[in-house]
């Protein structure tokens, strides 16, 4: 995991085998390293969502996305989200890593991972977590297009 001076990280353990890893990073997300973090011999399902910057939005060519956040509030809300998801979907482990600053086309801005004893809970948890994250967490996105124009994007526009 790329650790920059402004990175924010929080881990919590509520009982053996149950933990949450929340992190805001200012550089590329090390997805391979994150995939090794989930592991519990009593779970049968691991699920991941990786959000990347796409090249086009509404037929406009994107150069980069730039994310800003209120760090302390964002980490607190992400931790709350992870705890709610763990309770709602019987998740053993939850990882949420969000990149801040510029994110070029093809690179990841968000990685959400979770595991549970059964696939149904894992499959249901990922879209729920992303929907709540976009609605409740104070992270903002500005899109810059190749023509130099910029636009702040509302979470429901995605």
UniProtKB/TrEMBL annotation:
<dbReference type="InterPro" id="IPR003448">
    <property type="entry name" value="Mopterin_biosynth_MoaE"/>
</dbReference>
<dbReference type="GO" id="GO:0006777">
    <property type="term" value="P:Mo-molybdopterin cofactor biosynthetic process"/>
</dbReference>
<comment type="similarity">
    <text>Belongs to the MoaE family.</text>
</comment>
<comment type="subunit">
    <text>Heterotetramer of 2 MoaD subunits and 2 MoaE subunits. Also stable as homodimer. The enzyme changes between these two forms during catalysis.</text>
</comment>
<dbReference type="InterPro" id="IPR036563">
    <property type="entry name" value="MoaE_sf"/>
</dbReference>
<comment type="pathway">
    <text>Cofactor biosynthesis; molybdopterin biosynthesis.</text>
</comment>
<keyword id="KW-0501">Molybdenum cofactor biosynthesis</keyword>
<dbReference type="Pfam" id="PF02391">
    <property type="entry name" value="MoaE"/>
</dbReference>
<protein>
    <recommendedName>
        <fullName>Molybdopterin synthase catalytic subunit</fullName>
        <ecNumber>2.8.1.12</ecNumber>
    </recommendedName>
</protein>
<keyword id="KW-0808">Transferase</keyword>
<dbReference type="GO" id="GO:0030366">
    <property type="term" value="F:molybdopterin synthase activity"/>
</dbReference>
